[in-house]
Amino acid sequence: MIILAPSLLAGDFANLERDIKKVHAHGCQYLHLDIMDGVFVNNISFGLPVIAGIRKVCDIIFDVHLMIINPSRYIREFAEAGADIINFHVEACGSDTEILETINLIKKYNKKCAMTVKPGTPAEILAPYLGILDMVLVMSVEPGFGGQKFIESSLDKIKYLADIKRANNYNFDIEIDGGVNLENIARIKAAGANIIVAGSSIFGAPDIKSAINNLII
Q1: For 56-106, how does the pLDDT look when each residue is reduced to its tens digit (9 = 90+)?
Q2: Confidence (pLDDT) at 146
Q3: Domain containing 163 — which CATH number?
Q4: Residues taking part in catalysis
């Protein structure tokens, strides 16, 4: 089943409750929340108060993507703010010990655990952890800014992950984020991704319902 996760970063920040309820009503089960610290990526987005605030007005699944250094420092806070899935970058951790510490913290707070790789990072780096992850996110643009062009080599990473998942009977979802549109969505699905993050192609569409239906079908 294909799950669409609209990226709130592309929403109207003067009307977040309206936008979230609109995409939820039109069939989106997840909401993708990009947390940027201005250090790991060259941008700052929003943080804990926004997540806690919108958690009060909706029950959609919060897919929280941490683009921050040393993510283990804030796992408890994001869990308590309302995250359902906590997703951190392998590149943001300094060692295997730190990666495992972060995974264990996320599971301690009974949240789903996901890891992300940037375009320049091979998916093979995740191999030791795939048996204990709930989701893997492949970045198909450089993290930090929306509106970038889809990087075609991301499809090879998705295929690798789908193959290793099938061969080992693993149970993680494969998520793709960046530059997703109607021109590439069929190839993304065929490669093996089942959770699709999309920002401007949903929130920037003149008809949000049609945009969602076209990406899911």
Answers
A1: 999 999 999 999 999 999 999 999 999 999 999 999 998 999 999 999 999
A2: 64
A3: 3.20.20.70
A4: 34, 177
Q: Tell me which residue range forms the domain holding 65.
A: 3-216
Domain count across the chain? 1
Query: Does the reported pTM lie above 0.90?
Result: yes
Q: What is the pLDDT of residues 162-177, one digit of tens each?
A: 999 999 999 999 999 9
Q: Does residue 215 contact residue 204 with C-beta atoms inside 8 Å?
A: no
Looking at residue 201, its pLDDT comes to 87
Supply the pLDDT for residue 148.
Answer: 73
22: Cα within 13 Å, side-chain hemisphere: 19
- Matching residue, tokens 């940027």: 36
